[in-house]
Amino acid sequence: MAQIGEERDFGAEDEGGLEQPSAGAIFLHKLAMRYTTIKDSTAPHTAARWIGTAVLFLIYCIRIYLLNGWYIVTYGLGIYILNLGIGFLSPAADPAADDTVLPTAESDEFKPFVRRLPEFKFWHSTTRAIVVAFVLTFFSAVNIPVFWPILVCYFIALFVMTMRRQIQHMIKHRYIPISLGKPKFKGKDDSDAGKEALRRDWKVRGHIERGKWVIGAAWGGTVVAQVGAEPEGGDVE
Prior knowledge:
By secondary structure, this protein is mainly alpha-helical. The protein has helices spanning about 25-40, 45-65, 70-90, 120-135, 150-175, 190-200; strands at about 205-210, 215-220, 220-225. Helix 3 runs antiparallel to helix 4 (about 120-135) and helix 3 runs parallel beside helix 5.
């Protein structure tokens, strides 16, 4: 606290008492905004995104095979993707806690399947994890020597047990992790409905070719009109 008579340099204080961001913070903020813009622009291209991720994962596997190492990193990557997959296959709300989360009959209200982990976040997290694992292969400090067949067997066992539990959860609560759209129910046959409408709204129209008479009835009232009669002494051209 400034004492009486003490001079203070008010020009050195920030405007409004707020701390001004540094040049580095501004650069990082712009870089993050640019990254977010590019990431959001890929949202509509689902197939292209996953193809790119698959190619990236293939390159990573080739690098691991050529280096013959970094199996711990690969094992951690597999466990992480497996956890993401479980979130992708699970509903956002627990059906055991809320019985009205998912419809179980045709008479129930239609509700689309809402994932706990949306597809776009699943893709982004998977791709980011592959990139991080790829970068880690350039650091020998994380290349811990292990007997990789044990890791493979353990991962397969963990995958089977996890997916078995997930499938049992689907069977118990009667849901599938996809949304097929709102169900459509077939009504009365279109041909029968059309015939019934014609019988109700219109009477049968008959045409008399020789006299050129048209007998018509519309909406319950019969109208008779001579649209053309044969002239005397000759046929109508």
